[in-house]
Amino acid sequence: MLLRPEADDFRIIGVQLGRISLVTALAGTFPLAWALIAREWAPATSFLIMVGVFALLGTASRFIEVRHHQLEWSHGMVVVALTWLLVPAVGAIPLMFSGHYGQPLDAYFDAMSGLSTTGLALIQDLDHLAPSLNFWRHLLHFLGGQGIIIAALTLFTGSGGTTLYYGEARQERILPNVRSTARFIWKVAAYHFVIGVAALAAVTFFLLGFGVWRSLFHAVNVFFAGFDTGGFSPMSTSIGYYHSAVFEGVTAILMVAGAMSFGLHFALWRGPRLAVFKNLETRTILGTVAFTMFLTMIGLAAGGVYSNAAGLGRQAFFQVVSAHTGTGFTTVPAGELALWGGLAFGGVAIAMALGGMASSTAGGVKALRIGLTIRNLVHQIRQVLLPEGAIQSTTYYQNGIKRVTPELGQAVMTVSLLFVALFLLGAGVALGYGYGVQEALFESVSAGASVGLSVGVTEPSMPLLLKLTYIVQMWLGRLEFVAVFSLFGFLYAWARGK
Amino acid sequence: MAEDRRSDIIGGLMSFAIEAMFIVILGLIAALFAVVAVLLVG
Hints:
Chain A is mainly alpha-helical. Chain A has a domain of about 250 residues. In chain A, helix 6 runs parallel beside helix 10, helix 9 crosses helix 10 and helix 13 packs antiparallel against helix 16.
């Protein structure tokens, strides 16, 4: 029998959403301060409104009195799913008032794209956007990537944190409790911030001749978008704007760091460092990166898009790393990427769909699931070949030796198939509007796998239904289905339960 | 406390260095692939 949620269930959800609103209000004070210092009065006003709304929601939740229940699994999942709808809605306010969006939905699209670390954008005339607003777009990547939930867990102690943590598509807990894990995640981000921003600023200042403040502005924004595998960039030509192989190299390091699981970060940080290369996930991703890169290069060479091996290698390397890590930075314009065609196009699209590592900010199916699917397939084939009644055990190494069980295989296959369905959903809608098969699939995979590479389908004049479809894809893809399905289940129980 | 901070700094730097090394190796593999691709079908 389906139990209808009680009033207390809604109160618990309200309290948690309020806490998250307060954290986001706090984050919103950074671009507000930036706008005030830079005397950008119009953005400052819109940031003030946004912070005010978040603070109001947060303060209102303090008056909610929870009587009986504690935060349970279902509450946590619903909170996470609603967070990813609420934060872009309020976070889009400054973007909406910027005058750089054709309609409010476009601003919501970009806010969702920012928070889900996708990077597809409907903004117009980005190169003339106020710096504080540009900073807010990139800060959304940081909030979504590092996790507002993680921030809330760090700031507020309370029972039930685990459910919020897992709801945000994080599969592993590195330290004994969620709060210490959350703190470690922040520590990793802080260290990478210092080193990454210093490296990027040094390149722009010494090699590209930018001034001090301009260097810092670009370094901070590119760091947020790179380390959180987001894909927004301060300029409309993305990383191509810098025309620098060194800058691309530093950005690639950040993208890889962002796509690494926090378990791997922990191992690299505390050791044993070489053991990480024994992990199924590490080996799988090394194999798939090499495979998709080779595929892309063969396609580019056959298509004659680039005249020499150096140019071909540089472009394919950057685009594949960007696609595989789910970032979406690019050094080629959308129009040129659309010309790649054939194997090159396929290589980048496959890299996008496969994605980074589990428990990272990267999207896509994820390397561990790919590795486990292959192991499970091998297990099934061996089972068929063995004499009837024989029992075999297939194992894999992932921070220790583990067994491939039928339940694990089934769970992995289910999520992988859901991703395929998600990719087909967006492609189907685009095909319905007359887009070509290739571009419809590419853009849909990009939205569903939280990547952000575009071949030109995503633009302000695209059909309304397609914008909504991509928003749903970004939401579902970032949260890896469970939290969103839990929300639907909760609503269904509310409507039909007893 | 000071020991923890020192170990964190070393850990953070080592982590970034390994990530950088990974990109260098991947870049070299990419260069090799590019040459092979051009020779094969270019």
